[in-house]
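Most newcomers find our protein records easier to grasp once they have seen one. Nothing more is needed to start thinking about how sequence determines fold. Here is such a record, shown just as it appears in the course material:
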Amino acid sequence: MQAKRPEKTYEPVPTGNHVARLYQIIHIGTNEFEYMGETKKSDKVRLTFELCNEKKVFKEGDEPKPYSISREFGLTMGKKSNLRPFVEGYIGTALDDEEAYAFDLEDLLGKPCMLTVIHATKGDNTYANIVSASPLPRGLEAPDQVNGVF
């Protein structure tokens, strides 16, 4: 028995700046990878956002729903990590080491932000990637969240 290859119906999230809300945090766990010929391990987390103002009908007969986009990070808040500057951008303030290591990612669930999304092409596929997060500009309100928090 073989699984069928799905028809390509993937439409990446549009590029640009988007009002978004974090609605899902998944602790992926420890993954092994090879770096410069050496096997390394990294604890990973996936943050998933809904784009409040970018909606589409994903299933015929349903109402339009917001696009979702995710980004994976090593689960560390060290100065050289990718997660720490992302969180600092999201909250709009720098964290010292003590604050960074005490920071609870779940405090960001449901909180609005501005995400910057770019496209990258690999072969015939185009992927949307989150580059950064920042607080919403003053006076800009985020619509209510559609997806449940989990």
User: Anything to note?
Assistant: The mean pLDDT is 93. Residues 16-32+40-134 form one domain. Residues 83-91 form the longest helix (9 residues).
